[in-house]
Write a structure and sequence with these properties.
The complex is a heterodimer. Chain A has helices at 13-19, 21-46, 53-65, 75-104, 119-122, 124-142, 156-164, 167-194, 203-229. By secondary structure, chain A is mainly α. Chain A has one domain (21-102, 121-229). The termini of chain A are far apart. By secondary structure, chain B is α+β, with helices and mostly antiparallel strands. Chain B folds into two domains: 3-109, Ubiquitin-like (UB roll) (Roll), CATH 3.10.20; 116-244, Fumarate Reductase Iron-sulfur Protein, Chain B, domain 2 (Orthogonal Bundle), CATH 1.10.1060.10. Chain B has eight helices and seven strands. In chain B, the strands form two sheets. In chain B, strands 2-1-5-3-4 form a five-stranded mixed sheet. In chain B, strands 6-7 form a two-stranded antiparallel ribbon. The chains are: A mainly alpha, B alpha+beta. The interface between A and B is large, with 46 and 51 residues. Chain B: Residues 149-179 form the 4Fe-4S ferredoxin-type domain.
C-alpha cells in the first residue's frame, strides 16, 4: 500500500515568501543590501566635492552619460533610481508589516522594565522612519532642487555648497547620517543573519564589517557638510 | 533570607491580573527558586489564601515545564531553568518581580502558568522524521559524521521551555523553531523532509501569532540550554534553500 503523500499544488513561491516572516525579512535584507551598496558608491562619488567644482560637476555630468552609446542618455541613472525606489518601498512596507506583527505578538509588557537589545537594534524602526523622511528632503534639495536656495540645473557643486552653508541644514544632515550609521551597524549584520550567511565562525568578521561600513559611511558623508561649514569646500 | 516578592496574580485567562506583593521570611540560600515559591504557597494555604499557580515537573532542568520571568529575565539572572536557579543568587532584603511568559501565542492560564501548546503545533507540523515502523534499525546502517552529530545534539538540547519567546521583544519563536529544524535537517534521517520541514514549521510558527526575528539576540541570552543565536541564521539558510529548490522535499 502506498503511503499518502501531499499532492496538492503548493502555493505560489513569491506569495508564500512574502507572507512568511522569514521570507519578508529576506526581502528586507536584499533591498537593504542594494541600498547599502548604492550608499558606498554614492559616498565615494560625493567625496569628489573636495577636488573642486570642475571635477565634481564633471562627475555629476558623467552619471548621466554612463553606458553610452549602448544606453541612451540618463537610462542608467533612471534604472538606478527605479531599483532604489523599489528597494526603499519594499524595505519600508516589509518593515511596517513586520513591526505591526511584532508589536501584536507581545501585547502585554513586563512590569519589571529593563533595556532589551543594543541601542542600534532598538532604534532600527524609528531610525528607519527618520531616514525615510531624510531621503524625501534630500531628493527635494539636491535632485529636484525644489527647496534648494541655488537651484541651478547641472551645477551640483554650487547647489550643494549653497544648501550646506545653512548651519541647520548641515545639522539635520549630520544627525541623519548618525542615524544611518546606527541603522547600518545593526542592519548589515542582521541582513547577513537573515540571508543565512551568519555562522559561529563568521560572526566576528560580519560584526567587524558591519561596524566598519557604518563608520565609513557616517564619516564619509559627514565630511561634506563639515567641509562646507569650515570653508574647505566653498 | 527575607525577601519581598511581587508576583503576577491572575485567577482566570479572562480576569485582569495584577502584581501582588508578598513578604517571605526564613528562606535558605540553598533553596531553588521553586522551593522558595513552595514555601510561600505553604504559608498562603495555611492562611487560607489561594496558592500561586506555576508550572513545574522534573525540577532537574531537563523537562522544560517550569519558567517564569524573574526581574525581567526569563528564568532569572543565571543561565539555567527556574527550578535550577538557587536563592544564593539573590541577597537578603531583595525585592523580586515574578511574571509569566508574555506573548500573544502564550496566553496566561492562571498566575504564572501560560498555555504553550502553540509549541506542540509547531512541532507537529514538521518536528519529526518519517521512518518505517518495525524492529529498530541497525545502529551503524546510517553513518553520521561526529561534527554533524554534535551539531544535531547541540540543537536537540532544546527543552521547549519558551524562554526565548518570553525574552524576545517581538514574542518570536525563531530560536525554538530553528533548534528543532536544525536538529533534524542536519541528520541523514531528517534529510528526506529537509525542505518541507522548514517551510511547514516556519508557516506553523507564523500561524500561531509569534512575532518575527529582529536579531536582538535576547533569546540566545535567555536560553537555559545555550542554543546559539546562529541557529536562526542556519534555519534562514535552510528556508531560503527550500524556497530556491521549489518548496518541497530535499
Amino acid at each position: 500500500m502506498a503511503l499518502a503523500t501531499r499532492t496538492a499544488r503548493p502555493p505560489s513561491l513569491i506569495g508564500s515568501v512574502w507572507r512568511s516572516t522569514v521570507g519578508k525579512k529576506a526581502v528586507m535584507a536584499v533591498t537593504g543590501l542594494i541600498m547599502l551598496a548604492y550608499l558606498v558608491a554614492h559616498m565615494m562619488g560625493n567625496l569628489k566635492v573636495f577636488f573642486g567644482a570642475g571635477e565634481f560637476n564633471h562627475y555629476g555630468h558623467w552619471i548621466r552619460t554612463v553606458g553610452e552609446p549602448f544606453l541612451h542618455r540618463e537610462w542608467f541613472l533612471w534604472a538606478a533610481r527605479a531599483a532604489l525606489s523599489v528597494s526603499v518601498v519594499l524595505h519600508g512596507v516589509a518593515a511596517y508589516q513586520l513591526s505591526r506583527r511584532d508589536l501584536a505578538a507581545r501585547p502585554a509588557k513586563y512590569a519589571h522594565k529593563r533595556p532589551r537589545a543594543s541601542y542600534a537594534t532598538r532604534t532600527m524602526r524609528w531610525g528607519g522612519v527618520i531616514l525615510g523622511l531624510f531621503i524625501v528632503w534630500h531628493v527635494l534639495d539636491l535632485t529636484t532642487l525644489t527647496v534648494n536656495p541655488n537651484a541651478q540645473e547641472g551645477r551640483p557643486y554650487e547647489n550643494l555648497v549653497a544648501s550646506f552653508d545653512r548651519w541647520y541644514v548641515s545639522a539635520f544632515y549630520i544627525a541623519a547620517m548618525l542615524a544611518l550609521g546606527l541603522h547600518v551597524r545593526h542592519g548589515f549584520w542582521s541582513a547577513a543573519q537573515t540571508l543565512g550567511a551568519g555562522s559561529p565562525r563568521r560572526d566576528r568578521a560580519l560584526k567587524f564589517l558591519a561596524n566598519g561600513l557604518a563608520a565609513l559611511l557616517t564619516c564619509g558623508f559627514i565630511a561634506i557638510p563639515v567641509g562646507v561649514l569650515t570653508g574647505v569646500v566653498s | 533570607m527575607n525577601l519581598t516578592l511581587r508576583i503576577w496574580r491572575q485567577r482566570t485567562p479572562e480576569a485582569p491580573g495584577a502584581m501582588t506583593t508578598y513578604e517571605v521570611t526564613g528562606i535558605s540560600e540553598d533553596m531553588s527558586f521553586l522551593e522558595m515559591l513552595d514555601h510561600l504557597n505553604e504559608e498562603l494555604i495555611l492562611s487560607g489564601d489561594e496558592p500561586v499557580a506555576f508550572d513545574h515537573d522534573c525540577r532537574e532542568g531537563i523537562c522544560g515545564a517550569c519558567g517564569m520571568v524573574i526581574n525581567g529575565r526569563a528564568h532569572g539572572p543565571e543561565r539555567t531553568t527556574t527550578c535550577q536557579l538557587h536563592m544564593r543568587h539573590f541577597r537578603d532584603g531583595d525585592t523580586i518581580d515574578v511574571e509569566p511568559w508574555r506573548a500573544a501565542a502564550f496566553p496566561v492560564v492562571k498566575d504564572l502558568v501560560v498555555d504553550r501548546s502553540a509549541f506542540d503545533r509547531v512541532i507537529g507540523s514538521g518536528g519529526y522524521v518519517s521512518v518505517p515502523t518495525g524492529s529498530a534499525p541497525e545502529a551503524h546502517a546510517t553513518p553520521v559524521p561526529k561534527a554533524v552529530a554534535d551539531l544535531a545534539f547541540e540543537h536537540a538540547e532544546c527543552i521547549g521551555c519558551g524562554a526565548c519567546v518570553a525574552a524576545c521583544p517581538n514574542g518570536s519563536a525563531m530560536l525554538f523553531t530553528s533548534a528543532k529544524v536544525v536538529h533534524l535537517n542536519v541528520l541523514p534521517q531528517g534529510a528526506p523532509e529537509r525542505g518541507s520541514r522548514v517551510l511547514d514549521m516556519v508557516a506553523a510558527m507564523d500561524d500561531e501569532g509569534f512575532g518575527g526575528c529582529t536579531n536582538t539576540g535576547e533569546c540566545a541570552t535567555a536560553c537555559p540550554k545555550g542554543i546559539p543565536l546562529q541557529s536562526i541564521a542556519h534555519m534562514n539558510r535552510e528556508y531560503l534553500r527550500a524556497v530556491v529548490k521549489g518548496g518541497r522535499g530535499r
